[in-house]
Every structure is written in C-alpha cells, then in structure tokens.
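We now fix the convention by which a protein and its fold are recorded. Here is one such record, which you should read through line by line:

>
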Amino acid sequence: MHYLITGHTGFKGAWLTIWLESLGHEVSGISLDPLSGSLFETANLSDLLANDFRLDIRDAPAVRATISKTSPDVVFHMAAQPLVRESYKDPRGTFETNVMGTLNVLEAVSATPSVKAHVVITTDKVYRNVNQVAGYKETDPLGGDDPYSASKAMADILTHSWVTSFGGPPTAIARAGNVIGGGDVSPDRLLPDLLTSYSAGIAPTLRYPEAVRPW
C-alpha cells in the first residue's frame, strides 16, 4: 500500500511515517522543511520515504500535480499551521494554510483515481468551547474563538461539505487531541515544557492556568 502524508516533516507526521514504514508500506510526503532538531531531522526519516516533496499546500497547482504524479492509495492530510499563539501573529497565513490548503488537498485527491481512502486531521479545538466538564461529543456544535481553532473548524466543515457535494474517495475526519511523544520541538507544548522545566530543576510557567481543555 502506498501512503501519502501531507505535513510528514511535523511531529505527528514523522511518527506516522515511522509507523507506516515499519508495517511495510510505501510512504511519500508533502511538507515544508522540518524544524531544526525535529524528529524527522534527527531520525533521518527522509531515507525511509519513497518521495520527499517540499512544497507549500497553499500552492494548489503544485499540490494537485504532485499527488497525481505520486498516485498514492491512501492520503493523510496533516499539514497545517498548528499553533494557537502563532495564529494571532499570522492570522492570514493560518487561515490560508488550514482552510485553503485543505481545499487544495481535497481537490487534488478527488482528481487522483488511485486514491482509495482519505483522512483529514483536524483537532479537538474545533468544538465551541463552553468549558463543560463532561467533555465534547462529535455532534456538539463547532466554534473557535482564536484564529487557529476557527481555521480548523472551517477545515472540518469544508471537508464535510466537499464530500457531501462532490463525492470522491471515502473520506474521514479525525479530530485529534494533544499527542505526546518524543521529538516535539514546537514552542508552547504543555508536557514537553513541563518536562524541560522539571529536568532543569526550575518551576514551570503555565501560560493559561485557568484554561479548560475540551476533552
């Protein structure tokens, strides 16, 4: 089976690459360059890939041409601007990447006959956060006060709309929560930041100690 992962140089994408390759699958990727010191870089994951494409998913013609040329069986769409605080600094880039980038992938997948299944990864932050203790269900309303959350809710709705309106291969949406593991070098990660502080013998700083996560 040939898998294509968008965002394969990121934290989750790198682990998915390792897992799929270990199961004997062929893996290709579309992504920006990895962050310095990332799992993708330190583990030399490029050596595991059938194709390692570096391009911006906002480039619709390039995304479509690349997916068509690669002819994958399954596509995991994980490429995104994934940080809340970064979304305040660059709201336009966040919306363009997370919404229009998702549209570009949906269009490309629908135009590629080899694709048998498609998984679009969003986030648990797509839900309208009303601080309910019981957590959230898939049927709860979507929302998003910050640009990141709003952009991912829009990507979620966009995917549902696209599949309902235009069909294409079987497509699922996975609303991922916080994922914990080695090699996460992105800023503002709660558990990596806590471990770094405790390992150095210093008191950690909680940015939003009153926040309630929608789990």
